[in-house]
Amino acid sequence: MSEIQFDALLPYTLLAASSMVIILLIAFRLSHTVIQVVGFLLLCLVIAALLKVRSSLPIAILPLFQIDGFALLFTGLIIFCVSIIGLLSYIYFEEREENPKEYYILLFLATLGAAILTISRHFISLFIGVELLSVSLYALIGYLRTRNNAVEAGMKYLVLAALSSAFLLFGMALIYMDAGTMEFAAIAQKISGHPATSPLVIMGAGIMIVAIGFKLALVPFHLWAADVYQGAPTPVTLFIATVSKIGVFAVLVRFALAIDLQHYPQASTVFSILAIASMIVGNVLALRQQNIKRLLAYSSIAHFGYLLVAFLTGGGAGVEAAFFYLLAYSITLLSAFGVVTLLSTRQRDAEDLTTYRGLFRKDPLMAAVLTVALFSLAGIPLTAGFPAKFFVLTAGVRLHLWPPVITLVLTSVIGLYYYLRVISVLFEGSPHLEIKERTLHPFFYTATYATLAALLLLLCLLGVFPGSIVEGIRAYLLI
To answer: How far, in Å, CA of 177 to CA of 89, rounded?
Structure first.
């Protein structure tokens, strides 16, 4: 490996080293506060490393990795999300009696797995990233083993994730049997010369779609999502909803670009069906939910159906629309789950809708953050969700993807109902929120409130001034 290649890997090397640093801090019996602060500083170092390597890209580290502007965008979004999740995790776990220190080891390892997926250009690195992410999530989901049905949720994810990994491996094996290579670009070159693609490649790709569909919770591979979202600790639920899916979606996009997926009508048809089914089923199942974590789980199924519309268009415009949508979606969920985390008590999470009745009178800032987040998920103008959906619709219309586009519009109307239902609860009746005992130093609550206020501002800025963000995305994708 050359010095330039080693430097390009610096952000990912730092992520790998971060988990070892946390292990050493635990071995020296340092406090949760010290571990939290050091973890945040390590993430800042990773961001600085991402900025440092930008000028030397793109760099291929054959045969496994491709570090370019695409990877930097997705990795940067992952680190941003993990930074906020880490801050929310401190309050969430410090208020409970369980020892939270080992949680940060698992969090950094899962983050490393997601980051590896963003630079993967080979089936081996893809599988390593998926497994590192999944194995860490098994433990994270069941971390609070005595509450929230965490063990049940962890076991459900363990069994289904292991099954999806088997599908992923078998699909890779079938493609390797025909192509004789596991590198994305080489596979594309091998199959591009065949007018009729080999049955082995078709079977392998189909089986891999099952595994990817599970990781992204697409219909009909979505049955784990609501139970896992509800049973996992709220920061872990947020990690699954954002970081985990960002990593998997990034490697899916890179593979699709490598093989030029739009030239294969069968694949486009399959993804169109998955998108339509996810949009319909996700929105319909969310209609009657009284648990906000389950509601957001079904909502996320629908939103990744929307995201597939941009994915189907391919090319630069499709990737720009998809990344902007992921950015808006991630900030929105960070805001919504941040409110859930702050309102959760030592005994239970704030997940029942009745908990939020009259929240505006009790805590106007939290009510405002949750309201704007739900408006953004619904795609209301002046929030980030509106330009995000507009860019996805524009990309779909440009390629005449009429069935997914029409479904997106119609199901977005359905989504308005359950988002507005939650918002109406925030402003009706007298407050039902129980008084939460504040056991930590006021600084930590102030910092978390300030972070949520900043996320609220970001949602509005993305909704009003999306153009500069899109230009920045385009500049990175050209690297």
So the answer is: 45
